[in-house]
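so i finally got all the pieces together for this one. its two components total, 288 residues if u count the protein bits. some of the lines might not be protein, just check the labels. i wanna see the whole assembly predicted at once instead of chain by chain like last time, that was a mess tbh
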Amino acid sequence: MSRWMLVALLVCAASWAGHAQEDSDADTKSKIIAMEHVWAEAYRDKDPRALARILDDGFVCVSSDGKLYSKDEILADVKASDSLQLLMDSMVVRLHGDAAIITGIFRTTGLDHGKPFARRERFVDTWLYRNRQWISISSIVTSTRD
Amino acid sequence: MWIVLCAMSLCVSAQEGSEGGTAATIRALEHQWVDGQSRNNNAALNLIFDNSLVYVEYGKLVSKGEYLLRIKAAGPQISQIVMEPMTVRTFGSTAIVVGTYREKDVTGGKPGVRRWRFVDTWMYKNGGWVLVAAGAAPLTAE
């Protein structure tokens, strides 16, 4: 009888550990998605302060016109942002231990020299868990075709 | 004291050597990828790509399976990819590669050259580096 109870306890513990892991992964994915929204809000508000905290100093970004940006250049770009609205969707996070890849789409509307524009772009960002926080180390943005 | 200093110096050298070795390994893998693609060598590409690979190709998101299917279905390659210098940054078991390449192809009977800038993410898994994410954008700002 006690052996069966032990087996039952082990099964429960394994199941609980599995759920805990799933919860933990779900939490991590939610955190990364939330930080992507911080990014969008920074552009909308032309305020790079929050973004500066979640980009690694060695961060690199390639924009949809193939231009290469460093962290400082991205922060300067945020200040000069012409975006009025930035909506993000279709975000999927893939976890790889202390790293994560997120893919998604953002739709930007704004004014460029007084002329309204609308863009739909796809991004692939790489995040790393470092010093007890997630930081982005790279990003690539391309114009969507689908 | 000298022993400690020597040991510390040795550790730093080993670290630098290891970093350089990693960068060289990843550069070689980038070239293997181009080579595998140009030869329609799915077996080679299968080893280089992680199963969860996400790849943005011409603005479209494709999985490893979709990418390999396209390579398998492709005829003799009419486009030629010439890699240019690339930068490898390592963050422990993750590496970011940024570089450019020229794609020479024939569209509508006319030869053309397009230049792309790419960002690839590699991870060290099960004793080897595998590609987990990649994307390229055409250089139009030149």
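The radius of gyration of chain B is 18 Å.
The helical segments of chain B are 2-38, 42-48, 64-73.
anyway lmk what u think
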